[in-house]
Write a structure and sequence with these properties.
36% of the residues lie in helices and 13% in strands. It has 61 residues and is an alpha+beta fold. Strands 1-2 form a two-stranded parallel sheet. Helix 1 links the parallel strand 1 and strand 2. The chain has one domain. It contains 2 helices and 2 strands.
Amino acid sequence: MAVIPKILVFAGSVRTGAYSGRTADVAQKELAVQGAEVTRVSLADYPLPILDEDLEMERGV
């Protein structure tokens, strides 16, 4: 019986167009093609004290 790996993917940045987000997109797709069960989460969905450059541009520091 084959074990299907379960993988959580998230980017270290929530900024629009961030390299880590684009890398996470590619990783998610490739892992799914390889047969993994992939879950993608965004750190922006959690109440964390994170740097958000998009929000700073919109509302200020």
